[in-house]
Amino acid sequence: MIIILTQPQDVHAVGVHERLTQRGLEHLQFDFADFPSRSTVSFKSSVDGRPTFGLRTQARDIALDRVSAVWFRRPSPPVPHAQTTDPDCRAYAEEESANLFDSLWEELSCRWVPATYSVIRRASRQPLQLKLASALGLELPPTLITNDPEEFLEFYARHEGNIVSKLPSPAMTRTLKHLQLARYTQQVTRRDLVHADSIRYAPVTFQAYVPKRVELRITVVGEQVFAAEIHSQKANRTRIDWRRYDLGHTPHYPHTLPGEVRRSCVELVRQLGLSYGAIDMVLTPDGRYVFLEINPNGQFLWIEQLTGMPISDAICDLLASGRAPEPTPA
After folding, report:
1. In angstroms, rounded to a whole number, what is the distance separating the alpha carbons of residues 249 and 260?
2. Which domain, by its residues, includes 157?
3. CA of residue 279 relative to chain centroid, distance
4. How many CB atoms are closer than 10 A to CB 99?
5. Residue 121 is assigned to a structural domain of this protein
6. Confidence tier at 326 by pLDDT (50, 70, 90)
7. Which tops the pLDDT comparison, 324 or 86?
8. Cβ(118)–Cβ(161) below 8 Å
9. What pLDDT digit, counting tens, does each position of 144-174 carry?
10. 3-state class of 240 per DSSP?
11. Taking 70 as the threshold, does the pLDDT of residue 239 lie above it?
């Protein structure tokens, strides 16, 4: 039994679901938003010391100790019953439900893609990513993560103003998702210096701008590596951040990585305790590969569609590979 933890509208999961069905592999898609209003979960310990886990949805009952693999894609948070109307009671129900899921799923001894939630949260930390990437020999841009205005101004001056700013974590997406806000990487301008003091209210990541021949999206699935060139410099809209998507003017092609860079990417994913990771790099005009960051649960479908690389099949292979110990983070 394979379980895909994600939202019903997740198009990335649809393709994997279809492939698992074609292979005749038993699987179930489940969203935490169905709990506790439309599903139940039970944990039982017995005198023989063998705990059992059960999940009952509107469609079926699942003995979770039968699960051989879990794909932790992008599930929604638990949603309390509509009858729970008091705000404090709803907040309590949400917190208690989330705590149960966090503890229950962590105890499943099975293959995790990319990892359990606690490992994903740890692997998302920028300082850890940069530390491990540097230790593996990957080149990094000079980086500053701070809420100190003076440190920011000094960094700006040291790099003659040629720096960009970005968010240190996915916190905005998680906490302000109801506002549908997105904050992309932006070039810091002299006008921004007027607002330097506002940095003290929340940390910001600053990096020296890296000149680009192309940008690279490197999707690691187990031991398989799928590197794609994103020709972001062909469109002004995507020059600083390709996530501003202008696909009609931004060609995507498969890219062959040097062996050393490829091995470092696989090892970085492993040391972060993951079995999947989406790595962003820059290939500079003079041929250097510069690491920017890794998203433990990054999107891949548009890369697959534009380049033909079989990423969904690789994920299916990983999920179908049977029980395996969770990778141990460094």
Report:
1. 31
2. 142-208
3. 10
4. 11
5. no
6. very low
7. 86
8. no
9. 999 999 999 999 999 999 998 888 766 666 6
10. coil
11. no
Q: What is the pLDDT of residue 67?
A: 87
- The pLDDT value recorded for residue 171 is 65
Residues 190 and 250 reside in one and the same domain: no
Give one DSSP letter per residue of 7-76, joined into a string.
Answer: -TT-HHHHHHHHHHHHTT--EEEE-GGGTBTT-EEEEE--TTS--EEEEE-SS-EEEGGG--EEEE--PP
Same-domain pairing of 197 and 219: no
In a domain, 61, yes or no: yes
165 found inside a domain: yes
> Residue 61 — very low, low, confident or very high, per pLDDT cuts 50/70/90?
confident
Peptide bond into 114 cis (omega under 30): yes
Tokens 């690691």 identify what position?
Answer: 220
Q: Calculate ∠ Cα 281-285-290, nearest 5°.
A: 25
Residue 219, H or E segment: strand 214-221
Indicate if 13 and 70 belong to the same structural domain: yes
Indicate the residue among 174, 208, 242 that finishes a domain. 208
Calculate what percentage of the chain has a pLDDT beyond 70.
88
- Region 249-257: what's the mean pLDDT? 91
Within this chain, do residues 10 and 98 fall inside the same structural domain, yes or no? yes
**Same domain assignment for residues 23 and 84:** yes
Number of domains in the chain: 3
Tokens, residue 277: 């990771």
For residues 49 and 77, membership in a common domain is answered with yes
Calculate mean pLDDT across residues 271-284: 96
Q: Which of the two residues, 188 and 141, has the higher pLDDT score?
A: 141
E strands, 64-202, in order: 69-72, 111-113, 143-146, 163-166, 186-187
C-alpha angle 171-177-180 in degrees, rounded to nearest 5: 120
pLDDT in tens, 257-277: 999 999 999 999 999 999 999
Is 129 a member of any domain? no
> In terms of domains, do 28 and 86 share one?
yes
Q: Look at the chain and count its residues.
A: 330
Q: Which residue has the tokens 């700006």?
A: 156
